[in-house]
Structures are given as C-alpha cells and as structure tokens.
Write a structure and sequence with these properties.
Elements: H1 20-47, H2 55-60, H3 78-91, H4 93-113, H5 116-127, E1 133-136, E2 152-156, E3 159-170, E4 177-184, E5 190-197, E6 203-207, E7 219-230, H6 242-276, E8 278-279, E9 283-284, H7 289-317, H8 323-347, H9 359-371, H10 376-388
Parallel strand pairs: 1-4, 2-4
Antiparallel strand pairs: 2-3, 3-7, 4-5, 6-7, 8-9
The structure holds 3-thiaglutaryl-CoA and flavin-adenine dinucleotide (FAD).
Flavin-adenine dinucleotide (FAD) binds near residues 135, 168, 219, 373 and 393.
Length: about 400
Amino acid sequence: MPAIKFRGVDFLEFDALLSDDERLVRDTTRKFIEENLVPIIEECNRAGRFPRELVQPMAELGYFGASLKGYGCAGMSNVEYGLVMQELERGDSGVRSFVSVQSALVMYPIYAFGSEEQKSLWLPALQKGEKLGCFGLTEPDFGSNPGGMRTRARKVDKRYVLNGEKMWITSGSIADVAIIWAKVEDENDKVRGFIVETDRPGFKADDVHGKWSLRASVTSGLSLQDVHVPECNLLPASSGLRSPLMCLNQARYGIAWGGVGAAMACYDCALQYSLLRKQFRDQPIASHQLVQEKLAWMITEITKAQLLVLQVGRLKDADKVEHQHISMAKRNNVWMALECARMARDILGANGIADDYPIMRHLMNLESVKTYEGTHDIHTLILGSSVTGIDAF
Ligand code: TGC
Ligand code: FAD
C-alpha cells in the first residue's frame, strides 16, 4: 500500500469563507505539522514522549498566546487561532493540548486577571516558550464539579500558603509555572487564581503513567503542601469560579477547531485507503455502498462542524460569543471527530489498529478530548440549561 499523505478536506468551498490571511495561517501551520510533527509523532506516541523539540519552533511561529495582543504575542484573530488549533490537532491532539494549555489556560488568565507587573514578567517568556505553564483546576474528587475543590489558600502576613491536590494536569511536570485555583479562607472560600512557580518548596508534580490516550502529552498530579507565595502572586482580578470558567471558554473554543482537524485526518486517510484497497472481484472497497455510506456520513458531519466552529469564531471576533455557543461547538465537534475516527478505523480493517496509519492514535486521543474541558454530557447539560433556563447538573 503506498504511503497516504494528507490532502486537506473542503467539500463545500469552506476556503472561500476564509480571508487570505486566514488561509495563510492555516497553510503555514499545515506545512509545519507535515514537516515537523508527522515524521515523529508515531515514535512519540509509542514511547509516551512529549516532542519538546517543537516548543521553540512553535513559539517562533507565534502559536503561544496567539490571539492575545501585546507582550510579544501574535495578535491573531480568533478564527486564525482556531485554524492553527485545527492543524495542530490534525497532527496530534496532545500537541494541540500543549498549545491550548500554554495559551488559553496559562497566558490568558495572566492576561485577563493579572497585574501589569505579572503580565510584563510572564507573558513575553511564555510566548517565547522560555517558560512553560500548566493549569490546576481539577482535583482527585472534583472533576465536572470544580466548585467543590478542597485546595485552600490562607493569608499569612504578606504571603499566601497553599495546600491541596490537583489531578490530571496537562504539562504538570514540565511546567515552570502553575496557575492554581484555590478557595481563599479569608474571603469566605471565594475561588481565586494564583501564579505558583513550580520550584517553590512544597510543590510536587508526579506524572500519570499507563495512559492509552494523549501519549505525546505530559499529564501529572500536583501536590501543594504549605507552598508559600508572595501576595503579589495572587491574580488580582480573579474572582470566583467564573474566572477559571472564562479560561475554559478559550480552551474549549480551540478544541472545537481541533476536533475538525482530527476528523479531517481520519476521513482523508480512510478515503484514500478505500480507493486503494481491493476486495472481491478486484474492486476497491470504496465501490461498496456500505463503505460509501460511512464516507458520506463523515464528509457531511465534517462540513457541518467546519461551518459551526467558523460561525462561533466570527462571533468571538465580533465579541458576541456566549459560553453556550462554545459548548455546542466543543460537544458536537469532538463527538463528530470520535465517530469519524471509529468509522475510519473500521474502513481500514486490521490496518486500522496499526500505527502505520494515524487513525487509532486519533481515536484513543479523542477519548480524552471528549472528557476534558467539560465532558460531552456536561456540555449537554450546559446547553439544556441555556435553552430551558433550568440547571440539571
Ligand atoms: P455555576 O454556578 O453554573 O457558575 C459559577 C459562575 O460562573 C459563571 N459561568 C461561566 N462564566 C464564564 N464562562 C462559562 N463557561 C461559565 N459557566 C458558568 C456563572 O454564571 C456563575 O457566575 P456568577 O457570577 O453567578 O458566580 O457553577 P457550577 O458549580 O454549577 O458548575 C457549572 C459547570 C458544571 C457548567 C462547570 O463547573 C463546568 O463547566 N464543569 C466542567 C469542568 C471542566 O470543564 N473542567 C476542565 C478542567 S481544565 C481541563 O480539562 C484542561 S484539558 C487541557 C487540554 O489539554 O487541552
Ligand atoms: P467526573 O466528573 O467524575 O465524571 C465522570 C462521568 O460522570 C462523566 O461521564 C460525566 O459526564 C458524568 N457526570 C458527572 N457529573 C454529572 C452530572 N451532574 N450529570 C450527568 N453526568 C455527570 N484538568 C485540569 O484542571 N487541568 C488540565 O490541564 C487537565 N488536563 C487533562 C488531561 C487529560 C488527558 C485528562 C483526561 C483530563 C484532564 N483534566 C485537566 C481533567 C478534566 O477536565 C476532567 O477529567 C474532566 O473535567 C472530567 O472530570 P472527571 O474525570 O473527574 O470525571
């Protein structure tokens, strides 16, 4: 079987809806991924290795904090940023995850809730990839319900003392800085964000091993035992659970684009394979109606997902997006990508389970993507609450 190379997916002249600048950003990222990630990703996935060598080139391409303005950031539009996420996830969800966390969950909270000193100190270094970050919201006993968190911050003189455990934290053990969400005892347990340098005494990160998903991404548990930070490490404008949820909106938006990328990779591979693979009377399997039905389903759902996330991006650029719009895009596009990966895996038969092809890796990755940043069902409930006005969490 000849090697299968990604050709892009555009059934309904989607490209015509993009500006020249947007297409340029998309094409540059596609080329970068094809030349730098595709050749190494299967080895990284097998070894459970994060491709750290890509951090510097990705920083130079402006991917970290890409949609933020100033502090050395690229100032891309939200649609341009989304197209970057699409192409990164076409390569691998773990690499998109790394960029999502650095951008949406570390740089964004400093940008949105930080003091001018915090922004000037951290944002240029994070943008250049000189410093890496992680985001600690989830705890061992509180995932979908982060409001129940047990991590506490206590004010002692001009310092805060943090105690707690965070779990399933992307980039935890490679981070120089962690954004830690904690309840502040002296403020009636209000949730607030802290910048915690990871070399402070009492801070520990231990990697999760044995993952069958996102193997090219680092996932860790964090332990904070009497970690002292100066009061200037509090993010001054963070206030309540609404603050971390605002960060999640940024990351969920990128994931919605990423789902399209992973689905495109699976669909295009399955389409090409189905035209090459012959069974029964020396006919390509693409000539069978049942195979065509799967391909028709995939291209229809990918096209709908492209249009959905582009509209969400246009609303975001016009400052009109609501968090439930982003929930709809994350929920639909990740579900769609997982279904595409399953169908594509089926079309490749036994070859579908081998890492000569990217499909099984995408399938396994997407199982995590379905769960993190709000599970599929939590986004169902967010949409249900939005249309009925009744919370069913
Ligand atoms: P609830 O009372 O509904 O809300 C608390 C306050 O927040 C406001 N709010 C939001 N604000 C901005 N954006 C949103 N998306 C918001 N959703 C709610 C809300 O209006 C309220 O404001 P206020 O001013 O009245 O206080 O909170 P709740 O405790 O009932 O929980 C609601 C729920 C379930 C929707 C929420 O907690 C949730 O989204 N749960 C899912 C948790 C989650 O997504 N965790 C992700 C962790 S990070 C991660 O997974 C990184 S993976 C990274 C990667 O590798 O890409
Ligand atoms: P639970 O909340 O225990 O949910 C289990 C099941 O119960 C799900 O099917 C869920 O939909 C369902 N459920 C829960 N509540 C309800 C309800 N009210 N009604 C109906 N069904 C419900 N977190 C971070 O803070 N930072 C990170 O960087 C990060 N990275 C991650 C990386 C990976 C690889 C993974 C897998 C997770 C990561 N997470 C991170 C954690 C992630 O956000 C949580 O796993 C997610 O929010 C779900 O929480 P949980 O796993 O505790 O599942």
